[in-house]
Amino acid sequence: xxxxxxxxxxIPKEVKVRENRVACTPAGVRYLSDAGHRVLVQSxxxxxxxxxxxxxxxAGAEVRPxxxxxxxxxxxxxxxxxxxxxxxxxxxxxxxxxxxxxxADPKLAMHLVEKGVSAIAYETVEENGRLPLLAxxxxxxxxxxxxxxxxxLANHFGGNGTLLCGIPGVLPGKVTILxxxxxxxxxAIVAKGTGARVTILELDQEKMRYLNSVLGSHVQTLFSTxxxxxxxxxxxxxxxxxxxxxxxxxxxxxxxxxxxGMKPGAVFVDxxxxxxxxxxxxxxxxxxxxxxxxxxxxxxxxxxxxxxxARTSTEALTGNxxxxxxxxxxxxxxxxxxxxxxxxxGLNTHEGAVTHKAVARSLGME
Length: 366
Description:
Elements: E1 8-11, H1 26-34, E2 38-42, H2 53-58, E3 62-64, H3 67-71, E4 75-77, E5 95-98, H4 106-115, E6 118-121, H5 135-152, E7 174-178, H6 182-194, E8 197-202, H7 205-215, E9 219-223, H8 226-233, E10 238-241, H9 256-260, E11 267-270, E12 291-294, E13 297-300, H10 310-331, H11 333-339, H12 341-344, E14 347-350, E15 353-354, H13 357-363
Parallel strand pairs: 1-2, 1-4, 2-3, 4-5, 5-6, 7-8, 7-10, 8-9, 10-11, 11-13
Antiparallel strand pairs: 6-14, 12-13, 14-15
Helix pairs in contact: 5-6, 10-11
């Protein structure tokens, strides 16, 4: 939808369970409104992140009491994918800019296609081989995986009672990380900081060299094969799944037999659960009910981990999404996509079709 440099932008309140983030800060709203765009913010949208309605209004937003008017904007900007209660707002001509993770959500994908929504997914926007909009949330989820995983290792949660940092005379816990991307590296940084023994399993030799140079000798890297994973799991107290194929379903690296080989009460934090998870035992959980036990291993599979640290996450996300958001608003979606190849890679559905190959392949669609 081309608007000649003027666009109405809607920022609704997130409705996913315990999702406290908001898609834009008041500072971001001022940046957009100063550029001549009209920004509608649903009342209460920023409360979970510490931003009041008054802060948004002072920045130039029009605060609206309900979601309906906000969703009528030319472009709706969110944090998480629409849930079923929001499907009724989807319509032809709507630009939707948010995390989508469609490979794990075929029902939403079908609704976006059937309604003709132009949906841009943060997680598939790509610049020079990087995922700039996914990166800050991956960094937070990676760091948080060690905090949450160490917490659930406590006996009263069903963990095996290992303190990751150890104490003099007692060995520290063992952390194994599957994947050495942004989430995996940040998990390793925090795990290393606790004093835990850390191994990252990765396929890319250049990435392993980079990890060694950045993390030093206290973090070991190992070529990722099924045999190596099985050998590492036997001594692992905290396992972190941080594998990613942009837009596609996460590869299933773990089966039940492999999990049965772990210590009883070990903890598995699957960051990749947004994309379906990297274990056959992974299933989505929420911050209200984050863990369950399978094959003696405590699984933490929260699909919106950064939502637990909403202030940090919101500020980090806004700082990265704002240039793309303003480009779409200034130029219209067609011109923005043509002038920004990285943004084009973020387009998942458009005018009744799936437009991202990895997403289509994962969904078995054209």
